[in-house]
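Quick one: structure for this chain?
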Amino acid sequence: MSTQTQVQELVAKARQAQAVFEDMSQEQVDLIVKNIGKYVYDNAKMLAHMACEATGIGVVEDKIAKKIGKSRAIWNSLKDKPSRGVIAVDEEKGLTFVAKPMGVVAAVTPITNPIVTPMCNAMFALKCGNAIIFAPHPKAQVCAEHLAEKFEEIVLQGGGPKDLIQVVRQGSIETTQELMQSADVVVATGGGAMVKSAYSSGKPSFGVGAGNVPVIIDRGVNLKDACDKILLGASFDNGIICSHEQFVLAPREQYDEVVETFKATGKVWYTTDEAQIEAFRNVVFPGGHLGKDVVGKSCAEVGRMAGVEVGEQYRIILLPAKGAGTDDILAKEKLCPVVAIVPYDTFADAVAMAKANLIVEGAGHSAAIHSESPENIEFAGIALPISRLVVNQASSTAAGGALNNGFAPTTTLGCGSWGGNSISENLDFKHLMNVSRIGKVITHKPIPTDAEIWA
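Got it. Here's what it folds into:
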């Protein structure tokens, strides 16, 4: 079957299913969406092993935690939100808001999140009455096919139509491009080239930019607490989360104490040997670009590639950088458990270095800070070109939304115009919804005079 024929058949089936699904009630839709999340929650262990075996990257225990955490956080966020029919009435403005589906969603899913990203995309798409077609990374094909099969069973059990959730088989770049051009809206979670292709598809698209999270340790904080959270975030799933901490900025007079606090965890490998640091630069960035072989690999595996012995007990490799921005290639995004660290003098210097890193790579994505100073937190939030500043939390598990913060739970983090994206917030179900507005005359509203308007 040709690429075009396969895509045409998938989209045709999806349109028929979506036309039926569109007429289902809010209660029916929500039950299906809930059960999709619950399937991943209930089968987190099995799915985590499947993801690691299929892709060869990541950490099983972290993937289990991710599936449990994301499924419950996303459903908790969705469960009370209206998304079908009349969703709101604003009497003051005389407006009635009516939710309507976009149609067929093309969801390009990455190797780094082969389970939770399709789950998230499906929950958002179906919440708004859409059909969805997955286009997975080749190494994640088995995961996407398994989910499509199980999710369709859930749809059918909930009284929904066949073919509401489908997956491209034996996919290719050409197949994915054809799908993006044939669907009604595209959600692209993956590398820069794929996201650029999504925005070139001629269809409304939601993509993500590169992550490269700088994390500032402010003066006056509990260093153990800050270092523990940075360790948790940077090491999670071997560093494949785009929002994980990648570059630590520590007060100069506390730099040695920060390093010792990291080392005291027993999980942080650190060196000042310039030859070893250079070996890691070369293996993480061969030819000046992030090497695909290190993505999602353990510290020990990255060490072996660099010719440096790093024990299996270590969760991150901490390396002193020459500086920020263009001063050291270690200031770029590293989708592996390699983290750079530099000292700073004033807090303004720390923010300037964080900004320099983001301008090189990661503009619009995220930054993190550990601080007890509202003024410094606000200063960083205003000065940095970011869509989210994660405060006193492990960035990799917090930036994508959590039960204890206000970021929308998601697996797709928009980076605004800085990152070449259409949104500067976390992708949510509302982005896959059309809204009609019924406007009435506001009879009780006084009309101002020209003099009052221009006063």
